[in-house]
Amino acid sequence: MSANRARSGGTPVARSRFAPDRGLTFRMVLTMVVLAVLYVVLIAAISLATEAWILGILIGLGVLWGQWYFSDKLALSAMGAREVSPEEDPGLHAMVDRLCALADMPKPKVAVAHTDLPNAFAAGRSPKRAVVCVTDGIRRRLDERELEAVMSHELSHVAHRDVLVMTVASVVGVLAGFITRMFLWSGMTRSRGNNNNAALMVLVVMVVAAVVYFVSFLLTRLLSRYRELAADRAGAVLTGQPSALASALTKISGDMARIPAKDLRAAEPYNAFFFVPALTGKLDIASLFASHPPLDKRLAQLDKISVELGRE
Questions:
Q1: Domain residue ranges of the chain, discontinuous segments joined by +
Q2: Which of 51, 162, 190, 290 is the most buried (most CB within 10 A)?
Q3: What is the pTM of this model?
Q4: Cα separation of 24 and 203, whole Å?
């Protein structure tokens, strides 16, 4: 097995032995560039209608910095998880140690969430400041081989740095709504002409904010679906056990329907960061905006990788 070669082009891995993905890198860069442009347009629209646009910029930058710097702590807090030491959970730490040695990457912090929701996620602003978290629910349902495959998937998110991009990208749409509400509710609008001009500027800001929110939502969903496929590929190639990851996916997806609806609803806002999405119902037209690719597509990709590794 050549774990240090990309399936998409054979480029050597510079920072870890996880297979790199040019498609993922391109999508991350494109997403950040587009969102940065949209954010500047929104601030420009607000600046035309109010003299308090500097406040909007400062608030926006402050929120972005907070999401970047405290992303790991915010993610753990949202899931009610806590970091565990090697003494508290030697088995889980030993598994992460093995995978990090295999991938030649810094070991992230390890956390556990005491919930029956079967899932795992990674968070953090860099590989050295990252955290990987598993729930009690996923540990009860998977054997060691399957759980190791899931952890390899999550560690690949850290190595690819897509966790940081998703964190920053997901907050831009929220910022658009927040800044616009602040602009409207505070009564800061000051006409630079007549009342018609003031009403027109309010309408312009609302339209721009709506576009920024929709585009940021769509881009993060598209990036989220691709990054899950990329993590499946990289994690399976690293361990050489795509069948274990396929088995874990099948088990967790099947058991998700047995989780109480209230628990799934509480977890849904964080779907983009989960190994398997917490879903409360069937997907139809909503699948166009799903945070994860369909299960059959993920399994088909893993079957293909199994065949490729078998030939090698």
A1: 22-311
A2: 162
A3: 0.81
A4: 36
